[in-house]
Amino acid sequence: MRFSKYHALGNDYIVINPKDLNAGLSETEIKTICDRHYGVGSDGILYGPEASDSCDFALKIFNPDASEAEKSGNGLRIFSRYLWDQSLVLNDEFTIETKGGMVSSVVGEQGKSVSVDMGKVRFTHELLGEPEPTAEVLKVSGREFSCYLANVGNPHCVILLDEVDDGIAKAFGSQIENNPRFANRTNVQFVQVIDRSSIQIEIWERGAGYTLASGSSSTAAASVVYGLGLCDANINVHMPGGVINIKIDEEFFATMTGAVCKICEGCFSSEGLADQNLAVEVN
Ligand SMILES: N[C@@H](CCC[C@H](N)C(=O)O)C(=O)O
Questions:
Q1: Helix (H) or strand (E) holding 175
Q2: Which domains does the chain have, with CATH numbers?
Q3: Which of 44, 141, 211, 245 is most buried (most C-beta within 10 Å)?
Q4: Threshold 0.80, pTM exceeds
């Protein structure tokens, strides 16, 4: 089975084209491929292109725990670059159907930069309601966080703090992701406002854990600080892996632009794709 690996600011994805497979990917295969010791290692799998009735292409997005994500900003930018590398698109705008809605995408700078119109950001986890960010309190391990929910197609919990670092995301990310408040779990962002056009974020991704960057997280965090009047409509989101630019209009439609890099192409062996979780019996 062939694969291509890319990263977008250190958020790495493996692209698998359904035409290179006889059947879909099993849960075990997804977990093994994404595992950094037993597989190639990645923050997720982009399974496409598939046919779409409404868009030019359709894409499925899998997290390393084999759950399916509705949307991924960096995943969509990487998939767009893959389509461009395969000469399936040129430099004009094209559309991609995801479980979390349709996006449109443009590849620029000889593939090195990709912009995606992420659609409308809503300020709940459901797709209806809340025209602006609304604070709610979340209690986790004796600590109270004031958080803002956002939906970019996938769910986000945005927490504003005076300072952020990887420690806070690693300490509280998993507990917030799995908090019973969130029926479908959540992605989590810890956000520090730097000035009116820049924020710093640390990310804990649903189904993936701590990541160096995330496009939908950048979109959610930027939309919340814009909605609260803390930043203007053009925001550079700084993450440990690099910077993504988010532009937001008055109705909270967001456009994301940033770098994409191809790492390698390869072929999985059937031995490597088999269940690696072997129980060894010692008598
Ligand atoms: N890395 C992504 C987000 C991937 C999906 C996420 N883990 C989820 O389950 O919603 C991005 O760049 O947006």
A1: helix 166-177
A2: 2-118+261-271 (3.10.310.10), 135-258 (3.10.310.10)
A3: 44
A4: yes
